[in-house]
Description:
The chain is an alpha+beta fold.
Amino acid sequence: MGDPWTRRFAAAALMLLLAAAARAAPAPPSSIATLPKEAGSPPAAAVIAGAYADAFRPLAQPLLRGDDARAVWYRVQLGADWSAAGAPLLVVSGAVRTGLVVYLPPGYVARAVTPYDAGLDPRFSRQALVFELPRNLRAQQPIYLRVGAPAQSQPLRVCIADYDTYQAEDLDHVRISTAISAAQAAMLAVILCFWIVLRDRVFLYFLGYAGFQVVYQMAASGELYALPGAGALAPLGYHPGQFAALMAALLSINFIIEFADLRRAVPRLARLLGWARWPYAALALALWLPPLHPDAWLPNTANGLLAITTPLALLAAWRAWRRGSRQAGFFLISWLPLLALTVLRVLQLIVGLPLPAWLAYGFPFSMAYAAVVITVGLADRTLQARRERDQAHRLAEYDPLTGVLNRRAVLTRLRVAYADARQSRRPLGLLFLDLDHFKRINDTHGHAAGDDCLIAVAGAIQAELRELDWLGRYGGEEFLVVLPDAAALTARIVAERIRLRATELRVAADGEELHLTVSIGIALLDDATPTPEALIEHADIALYRAKAQGRNRVVQYLPGEVIDAATLARHG
């Protein structure tokens, strides 16, 4: 077993299992006996006639097991005549993987049953195989069960229970199972909505992975075969559930790689996980090929593969989380409870203890919990992608130095405002601003000082604008301000406030303070403005007139005004 701590942990875990099993297990029948191996597998008529009555050997525990070579006979008897108010029930619980035939008094007619049969008693859930016995059942009336070959890999527990007591416990089971299934269904519905809107394949992987998990749970409990039209699945036995488990494992690898961004964070481990998908696909195909006899080797092979890929997935997720993947952290949080329950389940199977209720419910509950956590992680992933998209959008539209709109973005806003103003016949104003003597500032104090001046001017302009106005850097030291619904008076008031605020700016450079001013040209939309570009040209003409008149002033464009090339060159 290794170090003392390992032995102590295993002992503690086993004691917990023993205690839980002692509390959760139903009361055993008064006696259960089996025909030993040397008795062979006699015919049913001889056993029921009592020819082998003395050959049966009592068992210490009420557990049924099969044999690879023969069908094993069991006999169940009460210690005293049945006297409870409710009818007696024969309850066989556990994962039935082989042929089970029951012979019930008084007629002892052979009845072959599995949890996959469509015609089981509808009064009970399929957590166990339940058979109603005669109310006058006597201690001398035996009940026979035959467990056929191949061997039953997991022990089956058998007991005789009171109808009323068992039905109350079964109702609790249905409530718990329904709550867990409802949580899983709700998460799947949420993720389906995410996928319909976003069309991100990671949501599709999760839908497939979690959906196959639900099918596996329903197949393992037998509830899948109680659905309308599911009777056609009964001849397939537990194969649909096993196929669903293999597909869930395969799709979970796809999901983990995409969700946790393993290809970027841990490329080598991501490649290993990617290769691990193909054995699952091969096993899922082999399951439906009878000549390969998959029932004899496939379950253990699948469990061994799962024992390899699960730690590999956890290692990859842990390393990706350490390297900054938030989604890998969500994955770890969701899978760790399931991993812990798996360890306890393996211990329970190795020791051969009955399956306690908390462990039986722990698996579907941990799957529902994982679905909730992963759903939160997918929502976080979507939010993170949205933030990255918004950041990219901002970088594409905003000037990185001043934080205002860049040239392309402000021109786009201007075109929209121009079209709206034309359609609604409302006013539109445009300001063209230029920082005075900017070249001198750059030449004298350097570009860093020039950048500081541009940032200060952009802030001053922004402070005087209305909420519906747009400010953009047109290029160099030039800015455009789009003024929707602004007539001449409003445009001039805004421009003058900007000019005055700019004169109050002081920018430190080389131990001195720079005093800044701006020149502003105003253009207004009228019938002589055929395009947004014409409006910019008009504002530009007014700006150059402001420059020509001495700078630090606001000038409005006059209809029909032009600036000759010499003036442009002189005041550029």
